[in-house]
Here is the input.
Amino acid sequence: MSDMETRSVASPATDPAASLYALRSWEASQRSGLIDWFRNEDRRILDVGCGTGVHARELKRRGVEVHGVTLSPVEMSQATQEMERATLANVETWSPDYPQGFFDALLFSHVLEHLINPIETLTRLAPLLRPGGRVYIALPNISFWRYRIRALWGRFDYEEMGPMDKTHLRFFTYFTAQSLLESSGFSLLRVQALGHVPLGPLRRVFPKWAKRMDRLALQAFPNLFGYEIQLSASKSA
Here is the structure.
């Protein structure tokens, strides 16, 4: 767009969190299924922790106006090509200059686990939503079976990516993710877990049966077999 705008709020060099993200660039191998949850009336979106603009790229093709905020200058240099406006800032200390009710939806795709106080951030950004606006969130599940087994053997090792990403400050389960939204003043509308059952080579031999087992297991035990939690909630009155 010809009227794209790039904004930098404060110098990230003075932000203690900036050193963790200054050289990081998040480019998803596939876009989050959360954007399929968006309603037709979700026409103006704030993508918090927007990465390189992978979600904005698709949403723009749908005619949706996307704004973003990121702490990584590397990400912002790419995201500005995909969205209406990109802001370089730490969302936890950011003072948005948008008017109240400006957005139809807020998107937090694997962002809140990186924050010191996610409840405060959600509460502070809620006024940016119009009445009836929604928030869409994706979080990793620390109670996924694979991480339970590691904890059973005394392993709690940080990694470069995934639920044990070394930049994660908060850890959530299927149930505490829902409590997070309710504690932030939102009304939960939908929650689901994405994951799988450990079937080993049987998954390749019986793929249709394996998918059915995954579906049934996630319905019965989402906190055990779900590696990702997806939620949507509405702004409370």
User: Anything to note?
Assistant: The CA atoms of residues 40 and 64 lie 9 Å apart. Confidence is low (pLDDT under 50) at residues 1-13.
